[in-house]
Design brief:
151 residues, alpha+beta, Beta-Lactamase, 5 helices, 22% helix, 27% strand, globular, PAS fold
């Protein structure tokens, strides 16, 4: 499994009880880090719109370039998830609600699972491990951050 370390060069700590624009926009703060990351990762907002995705994330998920995906709903941006059967078929809406990026949004907890991603030229698809965490803003879930690893 891939080992991921993140560090912040400037940590912002608002005074207790002081609402600030920077303190309430964690999704915006993470977007630059995700976009520049070498690791395959993805950031979506609470509406499941892709806010940022790394180039390696696009490659692993067979999505083309980040510019083609950012601003579009995750499941309408070309992501093709299939089941783990011998003859893969696309996941139903009920099953896609359980993928880690969406599960972290809805459960407000860490989520982990395997995804089978099918690209245009891939017959069986590739298996990807996904670990997602909710991103909070003012105590509410504002999005989810997901890291991927090919198995």
């Amino acid at each position: 499994m891939a080992h991921v370390e993140l560090s912040l060069s400037e940590v912002f700590v608002p005074a207790p009880g002081t609402p600030t624009e920077q303190g309430s926009d964690n999704v915006g703060q993470w977007s630059g880090a995700v976009y520049r990351a070498a690791e395959p990762c993805l950031l979506i907002d609470a509406d499941t719109t892709v806010v940022a995705i790394s180039s390696s994330g696009c490659e692993l998920l067979c999505l083309g370039a980040p510019e083609d995906v950012i601003g579009r709903p995750l499941l309408e941006g070309g992501l093709r998830l299939v089941d783990f059967t011998a003859k893969p078929s696309e996941l139903t809406e009920q099953d896609t609600d359980k993928i880690p990026p969406l599960l972290a949004l809805h459960s407000k907890r860490l989520a982990r699972g395997l995804l089978r991603v099918q690209g245009s030229g891939t017959e069986a698809g590739s298996t990807v491990d996904a670990i997602s965490t909710p991103v909070l803003a003012n105590g509410e879930v504002a999005g989810s951050l997901t890291f991927f690893s090919k198995l």
